[in-house]
Write a structure and sequence with these properties.
Keywords: Kinase, Transferase. The chain has a seven-stranded mixed beta sheet with strand order 4-3-5-2-1-6-7, with helices on both faces. Strands 8-9-12-10-11 form a five-stranded mixed beta sheet. It has 16 helices and twelve strands.
C-alpha cells in the first residue's frame, strides 16, 4: 500500500467493455484467438460450429484439452488474468478470451471439465447486458440453459472446454437477422474462418516439430493446412538458413530465418496447386516475410519496410521465427496479428532478404525467357554451347550474390550499369540487363 492517502478509482466496467470490443479483431482472427487457448490446453481436436438460427444464431468452439477447474475458469474470465504464462504458450496479455469473444458477441459462456475420471463440469457466462446493468465486471452462473446443457453433453466423454458465443450483434445485421443475407454471411464467415485457421495454425495441423497433429473442423469439414513454403513441391529451392542474436533493452534471444524460392507455374506439380499456394492475397502480395511466434503464424506478406513488393520476386518467401521471450521486442499486439520488427533485426535482415530476392528475380526471368524464346535449332545441336550459356548466367547470379554478401551492393550496381552501357552483349549473357 502507498504511504500517502490513496483512492480506489475502479474503471467503469460498462464503458471499458465498450472500448475493448473495438480492439481490432474480425471474425476469423477472433476464433483463432480462442483456438490459441485450446492449443495451450493440449487439445488434439478443436471443433468450430457456426450455426444459423436468426437472432439466436450461435458459435461453439469445443476442444478436448485438459480443461479448467471452477477456479481457473473464473480466473480465465477476469479481464487481465493474474496467471503467469509459460515459455512457448500462445497467450500473452490475459485478454484474448474476453476481447476476442466480445468483439463478435454480447454473451460468452465457457463450459469446462478437467476431471477425466469424474463427469464434473462447470459453466460461467459473461454477458454485456449484465455488465452494463451492474456497471461491474461480473460473471454469472447460466442455470438451466439449454445451449449450455448441450455443450456439457459434448464433455461427457472426457476433459475439454467449450466456448459459446451468443447474441452475435457484431456479426448479424440488427435488422432482419433471420434473412437470407444473414444466413449467407455466416456461411461466408465459416469458409473464411477455415481458410484463416489453415494458415495461422498450419504447423500444428501438419504435426511439425514432432508434435501430434492438431485436427480442426469448421461445421464438420476438416481444415486443411496451408503451408506457404510448398514443401511438397520438387521445384522449390531453399537458401542456407540463418540465425540472428538480438538484444532489445533487457530482452535478448535468437531469431531464425529460412528462405525459399517457390517454383514458377510451369514447374508446379499442378495448376490447381499453383493457384492454391498463391494464397488469399495472391502471389505478389504473398511474397515476403512470414513471422512465427512459437510456431503460430502471426503476420505474413510484404517485406516489413526492408524492400518493396515486386512482380519479379513474387516467388520469394521467408520464415522468421521468434519465441515468446521476445514478445516485447516485437511489440506483438493483443490480437496476435501484427508485429513490429526490431530496428536491430531489420538491419540484419537486409542482406539475406535482398540476396533471396536476387535469386528469385533470376528464377523468374529464366522462366520468362524459356517461355518467350524457344531454343534455336542450331543451339539444339550444340550441348556445349547450352552449357556455356547456362554457366555464364550462373556466374552473373553468383557475382550479384557475392556483392550482396560482401556489403558492396551499391558498388556492384554501378559496375553492372557500366557493363550494360559499354558491353551490352556481356551484360546480357551474365543476366545483368534485367
Amino acid at each position: 500500500m502507498p504511504s500517502k492517502a490513496w483512492f480506489d478509482v475502479a474503471p467503469s466496467a460498462a464503458r471499458l467493455t465498450g472500448s475493448l470490443r473495438d480492439i481490432g479483431y474480425d471474425f476469423p482472427t477472433a476464433v483463432a484467438d480462442i483456438v490459441d487457448n485450446s492449443v495451450a490446453a493440449g487439445a488434439t481436436r478443436v471443433e468450430i460450429m457456426i450455426e444459423f438460427a436468426g437472432s439466436r444464431s450461435r458459435v461453439y468452439i469445443a476442444d478436448d484439452g485438459h480443461g479448467m477447474s471452477p477456479g481457473a475458469l473464473l480466473e480465465g474470465l477476469r479481464l487481465g488474468t493474474r496467471r503467469a504464462y509459460t515459455k512457448g504458450e500462445l497467450g500473452r496479455y490475459g485478454l484474448g478470451l474476453k476481447t476476442a469473444s466480445l468483439s463478435q458477441c454480447r454473451s460468452v459462456a465457457v463450459i469446462s471439465r478437467n476431471t477425466p475420471d469424474v463427469v464434473r463440469t462447470c459453466a460461467r457466462v459473461l454477458d454485456l447486458d449484465v455488465v452494463e446493468e451492474w456497471d461491474q465486471w461480473v460473471v454469472v452462473d447460466p442455470g438451466a440453459d439449454p445451449d449450455v446443457a448441450r455443450a456439457k453433453q459434448w464433455l461427457a466423454e472426457g476433459t475439454g472446454t467449450v466456448v459459446l458465443w451468443r447474441d452475435l450483434d457484431r456479426v448479424l445485421p440488427e435488422k432482419r437477422p433471420e434473412g437470407g443475407w444473414a444466413r449467407r454471411r455466416l456461411e461466408a464467415l465459416a469458409a473464411k474462418t477455415a481458410e484463416h485457421l489453415g494458415i495461422v495454425f498450419h504447423r500444428f495441423l501438419e504435426g511439425a516439430a514432432g508434435r501430434t497433429p492438431l485436427v480442426i473442423t469448421v461445421n464438420g469439414q476438416k481444415v486443411r493446412a496451408w503451408n506457404p513454403f510448398a514443401p511438397e513441391e520438387a521445384g522449390r529451392s531453399e537458401l542456407p538458413a540463418q540465425r540472428f542474436e538480438i538484444t532489445v533493452g533487457d530482452v535478448s534471444g535468437h531469431v531464425d530465418l529460412r528462405r525459399f524460392i517457390l517454383p514458377s507455374r510451369d514447374r508446379f506439380s499442378s495448376t490447381s496447386e499453383f493457384e492454391r499456394l498463391s494464397g488469399p492475397l495472391n502471389w505478389n502480395r504473398q511474397q515476403g516475410l512470414y513471422v512465427y511466434r512459437a510456431d503460430r503464424l502471426v503476420q505474413w506478406g510484404g517485406w516489413s519496410a526492408i524492400r518493396g513488393i515486386d512482380e519479379h520476386t513474387k516467388m520469394a518467401r521467408a520464415s522468421l521465427d521468434f519465441s515468446t521471450d521476445l514478445d516485447s521486442a516485437f511489440n506483438i499486439n493483443v490480437a496476435k496479428m501484427k508485429v513490429a520488427l526490431p530496428a536491430q533485426l531489420r538491419q540484419m535482415l537486409e542482406a539475406p532478404v535482398n540476396e533471396l530476392c536476387i535469386y528469385a528475380n533470376d528464377a523468374y526471368r529464366r522462366s520468362a525467357r524459356t517461355k518467350a524464346k524457344p531454343v534455336p535449332a542450331d543451339l539444339n545441336a550444340s550441348a556445349d554451347m547450352r552449357v556455356a550459356i547456362q554457366a555464364t548466367a550462373t556466374a552473373g547470379l553468383a557475382l550479384r550474390a557475392a556483392a550482396m554478401q560482401a556489403g558492396e551492393w551499391d558498388a556492384w550496381q554501378r559496375i553492372a550499369g557500366s557493363l550494360c552501357r559499354e558491353a551490352p552483349e556481356i551484360a546480357q549473357a551474365l543476366g545483368l540487363d534485367s
